[in-house]
Specification:
Length: 312
């Protein structure tokens, strides 16, 4: 039996899936199975997968129910004690699974693990994740005692950099399949409230923000976003979680203001402790939607030139 299962949800990723799968098959650690869950794709994604001959690949097809249901379905099919996730348009460097398994071997009693990652913003700009934990050096590894404090700018993990012990994932009921956006944040919060993350600063994956058919293209009024207020009791007792949630409220408030949804904009800002925002963020909250749109376009232009500008 393999030591680890790689779970890949798939929906219309014909432009990306071969590169993604190739990055898995080329791992230095080879004792794994690959479970691809085709979530009702209507393009040639499945045909492209079938052109590959690696016998570790298992392909399942189901009706379209969204990425969370696909991931949960994949975990149910897993034949190992550990599950690592990878989105069908992201990329693993050759040492990623070796990286994760070294953490598992070093901390076998723990429940979830992750490695640092790069963010591909466009063809001219790829940046390493931004977190205070990176100040410990590129090869530090250990237990994260305050997940939220280390995730204010970039979250410590994403859905292509994390590995769970299967029984821990199952105990959390996995990803919330009702949500279309923020389902990952929801799971990270629930996980961090139960167990400390084991982490390494050794970057071994790339989160591609330029991939095809991304859920971020869905209009905000059509999304089923994470319910941040579900954690009200927890944030009252945890200042780091409160700030982490307020930063997410800030992000959602900005998105709703740009879309002209003043009701939801007001709902989100009412829940924010303004002391948890910096001056730049407070400034942006008070700008009108046209100014915000202009600033976003400026940010995109600068990123194309290889420069990164953010509100953090």
């Amino acid at each position: 039996m393999a030591s680890l299962s790689v779970i890949i949800p798939l929906f219309n990723k014909e432009k990306d899936i071969v590169d993604t799968l190739t990055s898995v098959c080329n791992q230095t650690f080879i004792d794994f199975e690959i479970i691809i869950v085709n979530d009702g794709s209507t393009d040639s994604s499945v045909e492209k997968i079938k052109s590959l001959t690696d016998n570790r690949i298992q392909l399942y097809s189901k009706n379209n129910e969204g990425v969370s249901a696909a991931r949960n379905f994949g975990v149910e099919k897993a034949n190992t004690n550990y599950v690592a996730f990878l989105d069908a348009d992201d990329y693993w460097y050759p040492n990623h699974l070796e990286n994760l398994f070294s953490l598992i071997n070093k901390f076998p009693e723990q429940s979830w693990y992750a490695a640092a990652y790069d963010k591909k913003r466009n063809k001219n700009l790829t940046t390493p994740m931004d977190s205070p934990i990176r100040e410990k050096g590129p090869y530090w590894s250990g237990e994260i005692e305050d997940f939220f404090k280390n995730s204010y700018v970039d979250c410590l993990i994403n859905s292509s950099s994390v590995c769970f012990r299967k029984d821990f994932y199952t105990s959390l009921n996995g990803f919330n399949s009702v949500l279309t956006h923020g389902e990952d944040i929801d799971l990270w919060i629930r996980s961090a409230l139960q167990s400390n993350l084991i982490f390494t600063n050794n970057i071994s994956s790339q989160h591609d923000l330029t991939g095809s058919n991304r859920s971020s293209s869905i209009q905000i009024h059509e999304r089923k976003n994470i319910q941040l207020d579900a954690f009200l009791e927890d944030e009252r007792k945890n200042p780091s979680l409160k700030k982490y949630l307020d930063l997410n409220r800030y992000s959602l408030a900005i998105q709703h203001k740009i879309s002209g949804d003043h009701l939801n904009f007001k709902k989100y800002i009412e829940g924010i402790n303004s002391e948890n925002l910096n001056k730049k963020q407070r400034f942006l909250l008070n700008r009108n939607k046209n100014v915000l749109r202009l600033m976003i376009e400026l940010q995109k232009l600068l990123e194309k030139l290889g420069l990164r500008l953010s509100s953090f």
